[in-house]
Amino acid sequence: MSRYSAIIPNDVVNGRGVCVSFFVQGCPHRCPGCFNEETWDFTGGIPYTPDVKWEIIKLISANNITRNFSVLGGEPLAPQNIDMTWEVIDAVRHAYPHIEITLWTGYTYEELTQRSNENLLHILNTIDVLVDGPFIEEEKDLSLRLRGSRNQHIRVREHNYWEIQE
Amino acid sequence: MRYIKKRDGRIVEFNKNKIVNAILRAFQQVDGDISTYAIDKANNIATFIETENDKILSVEEIQDLVENGLMSTKRKDVARAYIRYRQDRSREREWNTKMMDRIAIKLAASDVQNQNANVDEYSFGGRRGEADSVLFKEYALDNLISKMARNNHLNNEIYIHDLDAYILGMHNCLTVPFDDLLANGFNTRQTDVRPANSINTAFQLVAVLFQLQSLQQFGGVSASHLDWTMVPYVRKSFYKHFMDGLQWVETKNTYMNMPAEDAASVSINDEFYRRAPKAYNYAMAMTEKETRQAVEGMYHNLNTLQSRSGNQLPFTSINYGTCTLPEGRMIIKALLEGSIKGVGKLHKTAIFPCGIFQYMKGVNDKPGTPNYDMYRLALESTAKRLYPNYANVDWSGNAGYDVNDPATYFSTMGCRTANGYDINGFGQLKDGRGNICPVTIILPTLAMEAGNVEDFMLLLDEKIHEAKDMLLERFEYICSQSPSSAKFMYENGTMKGYIPEEGIRSALKHGTIVIGQLGLAECLQILVGCDHTTEEGMKLAKRIEQLFKDRCAEFKQTYKLNFGVYYTPAENLCYTAMKKFKEDFGELPNISDRDYFTNSMHVPVWKEISPFDKIDIESQLTGYSSAGCITYVELEGAVLKNLDALEQIVTYAMNKDVPYFAINVPNDTCLECGWTGEIENECPECGSTNIQRLRRVTGYLTGNYTTAFNYGKQKEVEDRFKHSKKL
After folding, report:
1. Which tens digits make up the pLDDT trace of B608-617?
2. Among B721, B667, B665, which Cα is nearest to B694's?
3. Nearest CA-CA partner of B73 in B122, B113, B35, B33
4. Distance CA B100, CA A50 (A)
5. How many angstroms away from the CA of B367 is the closest CA of chain A?
6. Which one, of B690, B694, B685, lies nearest residue B666 by Cα?
7. Burial of B387 (0-12, 13-18, 19+ CB in 10 A)
8. Which of B610, B616, B638 is closest, CB to CB, to A10?
9. β-strands B389-392, B676-677: how paired?
10. How far is A1 from chain B (nearest CA, A)?
11. Cβ–Cβ under 8 Å, residues B526 and B532
C-alpha cells in the first residue's frame, strides 16, 4: 500500500488561497537541493488508509470556509503512488466540484504524455493546475510562484488544453 | 578641641550646639515644648561627649553616645523619639543612595531593559529620560498616589501604566482632528501656520502636527480617516496644476475661470476640468506625482523626526481605505504603494506610521466593490511589510456610527487603543479624543491569591472596583493641571471640547479611562487547569469578561466618564509582572514556566492551533472590549506570493466580527542588499548574515527584535507558533 508523509490543514504556501495539502511519500527523482528530502523513501511516512481521504474532505471545509486542495510529495505520479493519488483526488473532486486542485510532479508534462496509465489520465482530466518538471538547483529562483526552479512550469487546464502561466 | 569624622569622610571641628539642638528636638516632639529639664539634660550629654576622650568620633558613634545618654535619664520616651528620628533619617539616606544608584545606572545606560522598544536607552536623550523616569516614578509612588493604589501596583495586582508621566498629569493618547487643523491652520508657541493649500503641504503638516501633539501627552497619535481628510488638498493641487496646464499645455484658450477658493469642493473629475483634456491629463499626472512624493515625504518624516527625551519617534498610526472618491483613492494608493516601496537606500520597512486599512462591507470587502482593488493592494503591503493592519468598520462594537461621517468609522491607535462611544456627547466620534489613562489587572496574581473560581470572582470584582478608584484618582489629578501645560493641545482644540471657563475637564471627559487585563490564559490555567481553547476554559473566560464589561458599563453611567474594558498591550508588563509573579509563587507548569504572561485574552503564542481556530476563539471575547483589542495570526513569509490566502484569512476575521486584526509574517531584511522576506541564517540573494529582523510588538513594529525588545518579548517572539504550519 502507498504511503503519505503529511497533511497540512491550512497551507498558505503551496497552492492558491488557503489549501489543504497532501504530501505523498516516496520519490524516484531525488533532485539535488530538494526542499523535502525526507519524502524520498518509499517506505517512510505513514501508511495510507481510505479514511485519510475522508479526513482531507473534512479539513477542506473546516471552520465553514472552503479551501483549495494541493497534492505534493514525494512524487504523487510515481507508479507506486498513482492509485492512491487518484483515489484521493477523485473523492475530493466529488465532494467539492468547484475547488482548485493543484498537483506537483517531478516528471515533465511531455514525459507524462508518453505514459499510458488509466489513473494518470483520470488525474490529468480532474486537476486544475499542474506544476511539472524536476527541481534543478542551477535554475533555482526564490521569487517564483509555486515553483523552486525556472525550468518548472505552472500549467492551468482550460478544458482539454493546458495553458502555461507565470 | 574635639574633632569628628563626617559621613563623607571629612574631619571637622565638633559643634556642641548641633548635639544640643538634636536632643531638644526630641524633647520638643514628645512634650510639645522645651522645659529647663530638657535644656539641662541636652547640655549635660553634649558636654559629656565633648569632654569624654580625645578620640576622633564618627557621626554614628556620637549618635550612639546621645542615645545612651538619653536612655540613662528617666525620659525613656524621649530616647525612643530620638532613636526613631535617627532611623527615619538613615532610611531616607538609604533611599536617596539607592535612588542615586538607580539614576546612575540609567544615566550610564549600564543595564538597558528595553521597556519600550521605541526608546533608544543608550542615547543622550534616552539616558536623560530614563533617569527622570526613575525619580518621577518613585515620587509618584511615595508622595502622590493613594496607599490603595500603591499597594495594588507594588503587589502585582493592578498595574499603573506610565507611572513616570503621572506626576506631570499628562494623558495618554489622541486621535488628531486633522480635518479641522488642516482647514483652519494652527498656532504654535513661536508662530502660526496657515491652512494647507496643496497635498504636499497637507502631508508635511500631518507629520508636524503628529510631532507637536505627541509632546503634549505620553502615548500615541493617530489619524482616523486620512484618505477622506486629504480630499480637499488633492483638489487644491489639482486645480493649481490644471491652471498651469491651461497656460502651458492646452492650445486653445477659450476657457472659463474658476475661483481658487472653490477648488477644494470641486471634484477632479468635474465637467469643468474635463472640457480641457490636455490640461486635465497634465493636471492628473502632476497631482498623482505630487501625492506620491507628499506621501513619501510623510513616511520619511515620521521615521526620522525623533521627539521627547528618549530619542523616540512619535507612535503614529494612520487609518484609511474607505474613501471611494477619485481623490481619496489616489491617497490610498499612494499610501499603500509608499508602504510597499519602503524607506531609505535599502527600501526598508517603514516602522512608522502604523498603517491601518479600514475594511468596510460594500466599499472594499469583495470583488465588485469600488475599493476592492485597494484591499488587494493592502494585502500585498501586509505580506511584505506587516502593515497595514485591518480595522473592521462594520464591527458590532462601533454601532451607532454615522455612515456619512468617516470621523465616526471604527479606527484605532496602532497598538489597539480605541475610542468607544462617548457618554458626554460626542457619540462615536473618534477625532479629538483619546485614552486618558489605563490600569491593568494582573489576573494570574488574583487567581493565585483566590485559589478557586468563586473566591476569584469575588476578588476580581473587588479589584475592578479598586481599579476604577485608581483611574478616578488619576483622572482627577490630570484634570487639576493647568491648560498652559499643554497649550498647543488646548488652544488649537486638538483635544476637542475644551471650554476655558470650565477648565480642561471639559475636554478630558470625552476621553476614555480603561481597565485592562493581562494573562487570562494563565489565570484560567490556575483556576481550572486549562485555557480558553477548551470549552470549560472558554466558559469561565466569558464569565470573567462579562464581569469586566458589566462593571465598566455601570461605572460609565455612575461617573459619566468613558470607562471601558481594555485588552492591554502590556509590552513591558508581560515580562516584569511575570518576573514578580515567579518571585512570589515560583515556576508553575503552563503558568509561570515562561518569561512572559500571555497578552490580554490572547491564545498563548506557543499554542499549536490553526489561524481560523485562533480567530474563532479570540473573536468570542473581542466583543467584551470597547476600549481596544487586537487579534493576530502568524503566517509564513511565502504568503506574499499567495495573496488569495491572506485575503481569505483577513476576510474570515472581519466576518467573525474581530474589530482589529493583524498578520505577523517574518520580516527580515538583508542590510547589505535589501532583500526582504523570511531569512533563516543568511540572505538567499547575497549570502550576507547582516540581517535586520522586524517583528510586531503590541500592534506596532519596532527595529530589530533581538536588540530592541525586552527579554520577555524576545522569548515570546521565539515561542510564536506559525498558525499555517503543519498540525
Report:
1. 999 999 999 9
2. B667
3. B35
4. 73
5. 15
6. B694
7. buried
8. B610
9. unpaired
10. 24
11. no
Phi, psi of B667 (to 5 degrees): -120, 90
Cβ-based contacts of B726 with chain A (< 8 Å): 6, 8
CA pair distance B532, B536, nearest whole angstrom: 7
Mind telling me how many Å the CA of B723 is from chain A's nearest CA? Answer: 8
Q: What would the pLDDT profile of A103-136 be if each residue is shown by its tens digit?
A: 999 999 999 999 989 999 999 999 999 999 999 9
The distance in angstroms from the start CA to the end CA of chain B is 87
How far is the C-alpha of B402 from the C-alpha of B424, rounded, in Å?
Answer: 17
Cα–Cα dist B72/B74, whole Å: 7
Give the CA angle between residues B92, B94, B99 to the nearest 5°. Answer: 95
Contact B224, B430 (CB under 8 A): yes
In whole angstroms, what is the distance from residue B357 CA to residue B378 CA?
7
Q: Which of A7, A11, A16, A18 to mutate to test the interface with B (most CBs of B within 10 A)?
A: A18
Prediction pTM value: 0.90
Query: Hey, is B469 helix, strand or coil?
Result: helix
E strand or H helix at B316: strand B316-320
B390, three cell numbers:
485591518
* Residues in chain B with pLDDT values less than 70: 1, 53, 252-256, 309-311, 726-727
Using a CB-CB cut-off of 8 Å, the residues of chain B touching A19 are 645
| Distance of alpha carbon B610 from alpha carbon A11, whole angstroms | 10
Contact (Cβ atoms closer than 8 angstroms) between residue B661 and residue B357: no
Q: A45 and A80 in contact (C-beta within 8 Å)?
A: no
C-beta separation of B410 from B391 below 8 A: yes
At residue B527, φ and ψ (nearest 5 deg) are -80, -40
Residue B36 phi, psi (nearest 5): -65, -30
**Does A65 lie at the interface with B, CB-CB under 8 angstroms?**
yes
Cβ contact B654:A112 at 8 Å: no
Contact B661, B392 (CB under 8 A): yes
Report how far residue B554's alpha carbon sits from residue B513's, in angstroms, rounded to the nearest whole number: 13
Q: Torsion angle of alpha carbons B449, B453, B457, B463, nearest 10°?
A: 20
Question: For chain A, how many helices (H) and strands (E)?
Answer: 4, 8
CA distances from B421 to A52, B52, B550 (A): 51, 77, 15
Length of chain A in terms of residues written: 166
Query: Which amino acid would we find at residue A90?
Result: D
Q: Write the burial class of residue B28 (CB in 10 Å: 0-12 exposed, 13-18 middle, 19+ buried).
A: middle
The string of DSSP letters for B86-150 reads: HHHHHHHHHHHHHHHHHHHHHHHT-S---SSTTS-TTSHHHHHHHHHHHHHHHHIIIIIS-HHHH
Contact B635 A12 (CB under 8 A): yes
User: Are the C-beta atoms of B174 and B510 separated by less than 8 Å?
Assistant: no
| Farthest-apart Cα atoms in chain B, separation | 114
Which position has the grid cell 491652512? B195
| pLDDT at residue B255, rounded to an integer | 62
Return the amino acid letter for B663: I
Of the candidates A56, A24, A57, A58, the one whose C-alpha atom is nearest the C-alpha of residue A41 is A24
Grid cell, residue B406, equals 468617516
Residue with cell 523535502: A36
Instruction: State the distance between the two ends of chain A, measured CA to CA, in whole angstroms.
Output: 36
Q: Write out the three cell numbers for B577.
A: 509582572
Q: In angstroms, what CA-CA distances link A86 with A6, A77, A117, B456? A: 17, 9, 11, 57
Q: Which residue of B has its CA nearest to A65?
A: B652
What phi and psi, each to the nearest 5 degrees, are found at residue B194? -75, 160
User: Which pLDDT belongs to residue B53?
Assistant: 67
Quote the crossing angle between the two packed helices B231-248 and B199-214, to the nearest 10°: 150
Render pLDDT for A32-82 as a digit per residue (tens, 0 to 9): 988 889 999 999 999 999 999 999 999 999 999 999 999 998 999 999 999
